[in-house]
Amino acid sequence: MIRTEGITDVTEETFAAEVLESALPVLVQFTADWCGPCRQLAPVLKEIAREEVDRIRIVQVDVDRESGIGVRYGVLATPTLMVFRAGKPVKSIVGARPKRGLLRELADVLPPFDR
Fold first, then answer.
1. Whose CA is closest to 82, among 66, 64, 58?
2. Which of 46, 58, 70, 89 fits a disulfide with 75 by CB distance 3.0 to 4.6 angstroms?
3. CA 1 to CA 93: how far, in whole Å?
4. Active-site residue, 38 included
5. What whole-number distance in Å separates Cα of residue 38 and Cα of residue 115?
């Protein structure tokens, strides 16, 4: 498993509590050890997890170890990023992105900044 600081590993046993029942939107990265683009995306997700801690949680699912979750949500490629709000998937993004591009794609599913 690609370990990324600040990002929780989710399993079949913890998926409901960590993702479906979260008060914040949750970005789930479907990843695998052998996935090069997943490794490229790891530092981007780490930065976003640290900077946007009040607006989104980021977790990862290893598709080789937790294949049932990937099958349930129709994940066909890694990395797939899926955003869940109120227990439902609301956005899916396939492939690695630079930070600015990823934040732009996530803008419509993130809660507004508290000012």
1. 58
2. 70
3. 20
4. yes
5. 33
* Residue in 10, 35, 69, 106 annotated catalytic: 35
Nearest to 80 by CA among 103, 57, 96, 100: 96
One-character DSSP codes across 6-62: T-EE--TTTHIIIIIT-SS-EEEEEE-TT-HHHHHHHHHHHHHHHHTTTT-EEEEEE
How far is CA 38 from its chain centroid?
Answer: 11
Q: How confident is the model at residue 3 (pLDDT cuts 50, 70, 90)?
A: low
* Predicted confidence (pLDDT) at residue 93 exceeds the cutoff of 70: yes
38 burial (CB, 10 Å; 0-12 / 13-18 / 19+) is: buried
34 is catalytic: no
Cα within 13 Å of Cα(98), Cβ side: 2
